[in-house]
TrEMBL record:
Superkingdom field: Bacteria
CDD domains per record: ABC_Mj1267_LivG_branched
TM spans (from-to): none
Keywords recorded for this protein, A-Z: ATP-binding, Nucleotide-binding, Transport
Protein name: ABC transporter ATP-binding protein
Amino acid sequence: MSDPVLEVRGLTKRFGALVVSDAIDLTLRPGEIHAVIGPNGAGKSTLIAQICGGLAPDAGEIRLNGRDVTALPTRARARMGLARTFQISALAMEDTVLQNAMLGALGAAGNPWRFLAPVLSDRGLRKTAEGALDRMGLSDKAGHRTAELSHGERRQLEVAVALTLTPRAFVMDEPMAGLGAEGGARMTALLDRLRHEAPILLVEHDMDAVFALADRISVLAGGRVIASGPPDAIRADAAVREAYLGDADPGDGA
Ligand SMILES: Nc1ncnc2c1ncn2[C@@H]1O[C@H](COP(=O)(O)OP(=O)(O)OP(=O)(O)O)[C@@H](O)[C@H]1O
């Protein structure tokens, strides 16, 4: 089996007496979508924050392409190819879709934006941005103001911005949130293709999307991974059904 792109070992985080990450082990392998699901308060957001560098774990290790990044800041992890998506506020609403794709990539790569004009006429960067927009189904919107995009299209643009960085791994926090049936179906199809560019760690409440997309699913409950495996095994897992009692039923489209 190929080496994991992202590897989490023994990750532990406490808030006072509350253990929100309890010795979590997780891997993300090339070409896969690995979904992390769990009831509200299970510790999904806290896990993502530690993986991306916004929150320091109390114990454990995070490796990116074999390198220990546990002590590195968010920006350094991003430069190494860890792409977190859906920080919607990062988009400049008055700029065009293409400008966002170009400038977003530049900003996330840690470059200052002060030489704005030369950047916007940089042909290499423009080509990269256009390629990313194309892959996210936004070519025909390139010249539009970002404010004119629908909610779903803005989410597609966030992924396009991440794509311009040539990511090695995506971490996606609820990419389906707020999308209707049509937008959700479009995003599902796009993510399905995207996994071949970089594997995706997908935290998502939309069980239809999770079970349609995931190669593997890990279930968090009370900060612990209570089950991990292919969708069929997770659907049949008694501990998972127990954890979801009174919450969304995994795999039943709730
Ligand atoms: N900064 C904090 N200080 C104290 N407790 C916190 C802090 N952040 C999160 N928690 C607690 O940690 C637990 C896990 O929260 P987290 O947001 O990671 O769960 P989640 O699985 O993402 O939930 P949801 O699906 O509702 O977003 C919760 O009980 C939450 O109240």
